[in-house]
Task: structure prediction
Amino acid sequence: MPSRRVLKAAEAIREVVGMSILRDIQDPRVSGVTVTYVEVSGDMQQAKVHVSIMGTEAKQKLCLKGLQNAAGFFQRKIADRIQTRYTPKVLFVLDKGVKNSILVAKLLKDVLPPEDERTSCVGELEESNDSQD
Result:
């Protein structure tokens, strides 16, 4: 379990990087980015910033490259925010959790019956349970 200090640093890094992407980054490659969470190593020397990027796979790779090129800029912003001996080295990682959840939702929609059929099935189950009592 990470220490409280590491968790606070991770949250501060998430806020700094997220706001910097919105406000300060002028790189046209960086757009449609959401910082999902940050993992900081126990010695606070590295920070893995997990980002969700909307678009095609080519756009995602291009955006990730733009973010990694701006890593020094983010480290300077982080150094201003958190007071540590060493500023964590920032590494960006693509988080596919959001895309996977959308895919699962689509699969469930295809597999499950339509809403009106589900409600009629629930009504039939309730009626059969009432008649058994």
Notes: The chain has two domains: 4-95, 97-133.
